[in-house]
Amino acid sequence: MPRCGRPWQRRSVAQELPTGGGSASSWSWVAPSCAPPDWGPGPQVLHLRPEKGLDGRVLAPARLTLAPRPRAGALGVDPAWFEQARQGATVTCVDARGHKREARVTRKNRHSLVLETEQGVYLTPETRLTLRTAEGGVLTAVTGLTPLPARLRLRPGERFERVESSGEPVVAGRWPRIGCDCAGALAQVQPEDPVYFDDGRLAAEVTDAAMGARAECVMLNKGAHVVDAVRTLDDILRRMQLHRSKKRPLLRASRSWNRSSRRPAVDPDDHHVFVSLGCAAENLVQAARAHGLLAAPSFDATRERVHVALSPAAAQASPLFQALASRQCTRGDYDGPPYAREDLALLQAAGTSGGARLWLLMTDRPAMEQALECIVQDHTAQLADPVFVSELKSWIRFNPGDAVHTRDGLFSLSSGNPSIPTWLGERAFGRFFTAQGENDQIARQPRSSAGVAVFVGAVADKAHWVEVGRAYERFALQATALGIRNAFLNQPVEVAAVRSPFAAALGLPGQRPDLVVRFGRGPTMPRSLRRPVDAVLV
């Protein structure tokens, strides 16, 4: 059965629906778009209760204000009865439970009088108040009682029958019949299926329990129900951890990856994973500012995650935010003309931060050819590794069906390859994927580019890899805003044996280059699909 909301009581469906709860409850059906049945007003009952101490002695009497006609704060009585009542007079009644009760008139003016009693009294429209006078007793009914909400008391082990019509619950017969005004809402319920109820009395306590996430401990006073209370509290607090840390509200966490997506051959230390996490964090920063929030990411080294603190700020839809929907890695040929100095300065500024920097923008051909030599050498080493080739093959989505099903990986059309059936792609991969063919493409595409960018973190650790990802994402968004494409050439930073020589050739001895990116102008390519936000929320 479909469910909505988060109800707090669970019972099973037998041949008829068993009930739950041990107190008077106004039950509502938990089902899609199902409103609780409208039972109309309940009985007109007023319960007068004196205040008592722990030893049962009365500390303060119960008080009732009466007037010749009902008004705010006073019930109505017969005007003649009111006129005869005197301060100090005794008033008696038999209440709704059949108990004899006595009260005394303690105050009276021309508009109202006050009765006080040290006994509990249940008043209904059928209750008659008797005023004792010298001539005898004078009777009056009480008017102006407020109807209570309609309720039905169900105890553990009792049953009720669900009917399609709504209205006042019918209690005649073997068990009560309760109407549900949402036609078909429970049509799929079968015997022994779980059904959830919310008795409407738990909202305040659930709110209190949820706020318990702010405290170091929570005190419970549930008596015989303490075990159920602990289970419910545990469930609430576990879920509140996703939304609150002490007094700080949180958005739900999202997974940027899972362990099954690791690629140990190409990324043995999860470097690219944390760079990707930084890219996602920067996207959130840009989107938050456009929606009037200032986002401040910080890396939690213990739990290896990024926390983003949000605070109000003036909304600002920057060019980088406007480029979010269009940004892509374009794995095609570019047109290769040099760029204006102003555009290169914007790219340089976008790709630099305190924890990472865009080390250099190579636009002169001799420097690019030197970098290309390293790239081809490293790519050849990768293609000689069967584990790397196997990982690459598993990451390719050979047709739109595969791409839609997994919503990850590298879509074949995105790299200029044809769409073919999966079974054919897996067989053709080994035949057509050769070192010579790949190296020819690797050499051609950088030469068609306007330049190559190298990103370097201040320190080679996960926190700074995240910063590298943020710096690259700003670079990519700024490039998109300028109509510039980009794609990775990460072979020199993925092969550990040649990473150090590559760094030395760049003038970075002892450092770790993190990303190598080519850029230029060219047409867009088909996109590789990614999962929607809802699919990665924890």
Please provide a written account of the structure.
The chain is an alpha+beta fold and 538 residues long. The protein has 15 helices and 31 strands. The chain folds into three domains: 9-40 and 149-240, no CATH class; 44-148, M1 Pyruvate Kinase, Domain 3 (Beta Barrel), CATH 2.40.33; 271-520, 3-Layer(aba) Sandwich (NADH Oxidase), CATH 3.40.109.10. The protein is 30% helix and 25% strand. The strands form eleven sheets. A seven-stranded mixed sheet has the order 10-9-13-12-11-15-16. A hairpin with a 5-residue loop joins strand 11 and strand 12 (100-108). Helix 2 (203-211) packs across helix 3 (226-240), helix 4 packs across helix 12 and helix 6 runs antiparallel to helix 12 (462-481). The longest helix has 20 residues, at 271-290. The relative contact order is 0.11. Residues 1-33 have low confidence and may be disordered.
